[in-house]
Design brief:
The complex is a heterodimer of chains A (about 300) and B (about 550). Chain A has about 300 residues and is α+β, with helices and mostly antiparallel strands. Chain A has seven helices and twelve strands. Chain A has a five-stranded mixed beta sheet with strand order 3-2-1-5-8. Chain A starts with 5 loop residues before the first helix and ends with a helix. Chain B is mainly α. The chains are: A alpha+beta (about 300), B mainly alpha (about 550). At the A-B interface, helix 1, helix 2 and strand 9 of A face helix 3, helix 8, helix 9, helix 10 and helix 11 of B.
Chain lengths: ~300, ~550
């Protein structure tokens, strides 16, 4: 089965536009330079013939312009309706919520909640519900679908479609404050089986280790009030101000896709968040090195 | 019976620098020529400021993951760059030319309301200074020139920058409204008795139409600004969704002003082009009626296109279709004008003076900006490319390639009239080539950056393939533009130091302003020649083959 994707539809429209705009542009360039050389003032020039206009020419060019506009109006409306055909009672596959400056994802069917790295299955049009928790953000992964604003108080829907597995990059496209630039998107398209096993793994209960450093980290996580913002499933801590960290270590990137999720970056982040992501909402807790050791041990084992 | 009562000329002499030597006369003057020049100095001053902000932006973006400027400062700079270039450079420059030349072109000795004229200038200046004072008062506005809510509300922008933005823009808005009132009234009531409305030069015509655009657009902005001020200062909830307000109502206010604002800058710029092309092609404008009427079409359509700034907000396909059609339609009268300007060159005798060079660059670059603008009316393309560098490129092709190039053309064209001195053509050509090459180097490549996914308003970007190369090229272009501006300043400085030597009519032009000394006396016209056509001076110079009589 061969079906044109939304992105291909828009690309096609853009090509049509480029061809027509290119022809018009070349005509303008040609006539400007042709007249410039042909009618350049001669040394002993008399005043040329005083032509005041040509109404017939203007009316016919207006007619041509209206014709072109008409064609593009049809193409626009046609493509628009194909790309943005949201059913009356939308049942989203995933809800994505924009926060200053990270993404929260909830999968209503399975109950999976994750942050920043958003998984979708390959070869399937998935309906996405978009919301915002604070200011206006805009969801845009160019290879997967159109751009759509996330507006507090309003619910929007878009289709996403990935034709092959892989990682797709995108970015927040509405200015949303200090770290607008640090609000990048990574969508991971998995084959059906890989997607299902990822969902399974995300639903696993939170990791428990007997390692004393892990235990110390777990205790610090609560004592140092990390839990006022970050939820860990299966614990009493359910605050949703910051990203849910239940399976943090299973994500390859963190901080709105700004950094690779490794020990070094995590340490730097815990030591001084403002240095890593200036303007970020995470306070600087002025942890000692030992505290950071324990917290890193704890968080890095939340798989 | 005349529809309008002619306003009598002042019997007593109004204050002006030319009536005395006191320093206070600088702020007391109500002479339209003096105020016009002060508007131009204001625009030039803020052009330096806004230009330096642009250089900082290009320095920061030259390499990926740059830490030269903090995100907080970057956001203030790009916000102030936008506000400055629109409200404190493009508008004052065009208002300045109009204030200086509108009375001269219709055979009047003053504006209809000379004191309101002075008020408009001073309140614009105050608005500008107030906005810049914010840098010393806890931080400049940092929510973008579009200042979207709820980001600009107290919860997310608690620093006073946004308040300075609100008050500053209310003040400059009041200034623009008073200028518009003056342009309309002057055009209607102070024309020399010979000049009918269909005989005024096209620059006057565009400024006249523009007056109505300003009168209807700025109250929308100011109403929105007051609502936001009430939200911020008195904890109202117009724009706060969590307590019953609307997060997109502001966008409607802002763009219902903001899109007409684009034409508020473009129409007088088109007016300048419509003056310069005929003089240096030695032919009358091709299709006066079409250029004039298409301006009215633009002015009316300008009010029905604002939603194309909001296609990604998520309105229904039906709503988006309406605004897609209106936005495509507005391209037609604009495109028609380009055809008229090229038609004026046809079978002419073209002199490539510096003003004409800028017109040629305008024709090419504004066409690029206009065409890329149409791609945003094609809604699905907008869904991909809005808020990317493709849009940054588009808007700079309209504002720089369209508006600023026209202002430069007007500056070189009218400078001898205003100062009595000709700007150096040699330096002018250096300015032209550096600026135009730099401009295209900076912004042409940004179309591609946008298409490959670079969003706008980001203080830095990841090291993705080709992003650095293209951004470096873009920043190098900015250096060329900067060099061009240095040469313009050098040209202005050296020219102004020379004695006055410009003749009355250095370009052999045809409109009434060239029938006065350079610079004109305090009272513009001792005696106004009889006017029978759109080109009074052509008729005087060629009594054997005058234009068709229109009155």
């Amino acid at each position: 089965m061969f079906q044109t994707t939304n992105v291909e539809l828009i690309d096609k429209l853009f090509i049509y536009f480029l061809v027509v705009a290119g022809i018009i542009f070349l005509l303008v360039v040609f006539f400007v330079f042709y007249y410039l050389f042909k009618y350049r003032r001669k040394q002993t020039a008399e005043e040329p013939e005083q032509i005041h206009g040509n109404e017939k020419l203007e009316y016919s060019l207006t007619a041509v312009a209206i014709l072109i506009t008409g064609i593009f109006t049809y193409l626009t409306i046609d493509t628009m309706r194909k790309v943005q055909d949201i059913p009356d009672n939308p049942e989203p596959f995933v809800q994505i919520i924009g926060h200053q400056w990270w993404w929260e994802a909830q999968y209503p069917e399975t109950g999976v909640i994750t942050a920043n790295e958003i998984h979708i299955p390959v070869g399937k049009k998935v309906l996405v519900q978009l919301n915002s928790d604070d200011v206006i953000h805009s969801w845009w992964v160019a290879q997967l679908g159109r751009k759509m604003d996330m507006i507090p108080g309003i619910t929007n829907y878009v289709w996403l479609y990935a034709d092959k597995p892989g990682e797709y990059l995108g970015t927040c496209s509405e200015f949303c404050g200090a770290q607008h630039a640090g609000m990048r998107i990574r969508v991971i398209a998995d084959e059906e089986r890989a997607f299902n096993s990822w969902s399974q793994q995300q639903l696993e209960p939170v990791a428990q280790l007997d390692d004393p450093l892990f235990k110390k980290g777990e205790k610090l996580f609560e004592e140092k009030t990390c839990t006022n913002c970050h939820a860990i499933n299966g614990t009493p801590f359910t605050m949703k101000v910051g990203p849910n960290l239940t399976h943090f270590a299973s994500r390859k990137h963190f901080l709105g896709d700004l950094k690779v999720n490794n020990e070094e970056n995590l340490r730097a982040w815990l030591h001084d968040p403002q240095n890593v992501k200036p303007g970020a909402k995470m306070p600087n807790f002025i942890f000692s090195d030992q505290e950071v050791d324990a917290l890193v041990e704890y968080i890095n084992n939340l798989k | 019976m005349s529809l309008f009562i002619n306003i009598p000329e002042d019997s007593e002499q109004l204050p002006s620098l030319k009536t005395g030597q006191g320093k206070l006369l600088w702020i007391a003057s109500v002479d339209h020529k003096q105020i016009g020049i002060m508007y131009l100095w204001l625009a030039l001053f803020f052009f330096v400021v806004g230009g330096l902000e642009a250089m900082l932006i290009r320095a920061q973006l030259a390499i990926p993951e740059n830490t030269l400027i903090s995100p907080e400062l970057y956001n203030q700079i790009f916000t102030m760059h936008g506000i400055t270039m629109i409200f404190l450079v493009a508008m004052p420059a065009l208002v300045g030319f109009a204030t200086y030349f509108l009375p001269l072109m219709i055979g009047a000795n003053e504006m209809a309301f000379p004191r309101l004229n002075a008020f408009g200038f001073w309140i614009t200046l105050m608005g500008g200074f107030l906005m810049y004072f914010s840098f010393f008062a806890g931080g400049a506005p940092n929510a973008g020139w579009f200042n979207y809510v709820p980001l600009s509300e107290n919860n997310y922008s608690s620093a006073p920058g946004v308040d300075y933005y609100i008050i500053g823009l209310i003040l400059t808005g009041i200034g623009s409204i008073s200028a518009a009132l003056n342009f309309i009234t002057t055009t209607l009531t102070l024309r020399s008795p010979d000049i009918k409305l269909n005989m005024v030069p096209l620059f006057v015509w565009m400024v006249f139409i523009n007056g109505f655009l300003i009168l209807a657009a700025f109250p929308l902005l100011n109403a929105g600004l007051f609502m936001l001020l009430i939200d911020r200062q008195f904890d109202a909830h117009f724009f706060i969704p969590s307590s019953g307000g609307s997060a997109i109502l502001w966008q409607h206010f802002f763009w219902a002003f903001g899109h007409p604002e684009v034409y508020i800058m473009a129409l007088p710029a088109f007016g300048i082009i419509s003056e310069v092309v005929p003089v240096f092609s030695r032919k009358p404008i091709f299709g006066y009626k079409f250029v004039a009427v298409s301006s009215i079409a633009i002015a009316l359509l300008a009010y029905s296109v604002w939603l194309h700034h909001m296609f990604a907000v998520g309105y229904s396909n039906t709503v988006n279709s309406f605004f897609a059609i209106s936005s495509m339609l507005i391209g037609i009268p604009t495109g028609l004008k380009v055809i008229n300007w090229i038609g004026t060159m046809y079978k002419g005798s073209i002199q490539l003076t510096v003003p004409m060079l800028f017109v040629v660059a305008f024709l090419i670059d504004f066409t690029i900006g206009g065409l890329s603008g149409v791609s945003f009316a094609i809604v699905p393309i907008d869904w991909q490319l809005t808020d990317t560098y493709y849009l940054v490129a588009h808007l700079h092709y309209v504002f720089v390639g369209g508006v600023i190039f026209s202002i430069f053309a007007g500056l070189y064209y009218w400078f001898p009239k205003m100062s009595g001195r000709m700007l150096s053509a040699k330096l002018g050509k250096w300015h032209f080539w550096l600026f135009v090459i730099g401009f295209n180097l900076t912004f042409l490549i940004q179309h591609i950056l946008g298409i490959i996914g670079m969003p706008r308003r980001i203080y830095t970007y990841p090291d993705l393939p080709n992003w650095e190369l293209m951004n470096v090229l873009s920043s190098i272009g900015a250096v060329f533009m900067f060099a061009g501006m240095v040469i313009l300043f050098w040209n202005l400085y050296t020219t102004l130091k020379k004695p006055r030597s410009a003749p009355e009519d250095p370009w052999d032009a045809w409109t009434l302003e060239w029938h006065t000394p350079s610079p004109p006396d305090l009272k513009n016209f001792g005696e106004i020649p009889r006017v029978y056509s759109r080109r009074p001076l052509w008729d005087l110079k060629h009594p054997d083959k005058p234009d068709k009589r229109l009155n």
